């Protein structure tokens, strides 16, 4: 309550009153000078109070007559979770701390750390010498199997419905189940398998956090997944973590960092990398070059990726890279051509990706691809079709989907005044506003 009052968070104050007091909704409404319907919508998450005058009235109405001092707010230590840990025990301790500040939403947890904050962790991983490739540590039963199943479940929810759909539950599972298991002593084989599957789980949580645009938490989970993979001696999984970090860095505009992380993934995996992994890592580098408008470097990376993808053997791949199929590969290449302004090529590749993607497993990915297609179609001057394609995004738990929609809408604004464009912009504005 003190923190919410100090930050002027009227929505949190109303929810805390209902959760921790015996006050009924109508009593809270009278305290806040709001209608009971409005209070009900705030409590259900259907409405957030944003108008400055309304927020001031609610905060004053709730705190009037009470001495609620402004606390010296706790903040997340800037370095928390951004380094590799010296021992498995330290890893479990740090993971617990990161999950704890995430659950409590401690101020600072959402701030995106600078690239320099993780460079030492990446360098430490690159120069480390693994004791094995990790494959022989597979354990198919007990806690390892349970975490593997939980990871698959949360990843499926993320891919289909967006990162915020079950992210809170995943954080609680990490804190209540995974971390306590990591603190226990295990036989070497079981211990390595436990750290490997925990790395996969934390990596999936990092993706969920990134998709929800909780970029500070995502970055910390990515680094801790890298550390877990190092303790598991799973070099390939660690490289995959760096590739995921490259994806996030590129999305937030850190294109040089994204390029370097993709190259670190390829270098760190070395000869162990399968052709599918090489193709995926190279496409992350290509994406970074395209976003930075370095056409020649982008085409060089894409050419290498195409050769690797053509030689791939899915049967030789770990399960966690299985998503990188023809649909995903075509989507990545389409993104590059969209960013380079090659509308015709981007359109063809996005259409190929959508045509080869079936089922609901990767529903969110198809939203991204469809918006890339919409941007390409708009680039060819076909406004009506582009707006029809862009209307795919409705209410969603994926902040990245909303971000893609918002970026596309900014391009459509050039055509304001045309009925089709105006209808789409009104629709997009409603979706973006509801997500804020």
Search tags:
436 residues; single chain; mainly alpha; 21 helices
Could you please describe the fold and organization of this structure?
The two termini are 23 Å apart. The longest helix has 24 residues, at 188-211. By secondary structure, the chain is mainly alpha-helical. Helix 6 runs antiparallel to helix 11 and helix 16 runs antiparallel to helix 17 (343-356). The chain has 21 helices and no strands.
- Cα(first) to Cα(last) distance is 23 Å
Average residue pLDDT: 90
Q: Encode the helix/strand succession as letters.
A: HHHHHHHHHHHHHHHHHHHHH
Provide a count of the helices. 21
Taking pLDDT < 50 over at least 5 consecutive residues as the criterion, the unreliable ranges are: 68-73
What's the alpha carbon Rg, rounded to whole Å?
23 Å
By helix and strand content, what is the structural category?
A: mainly alpha
Multimeric state: single chain
* Count of individual beta strands: 0
Shape: globular
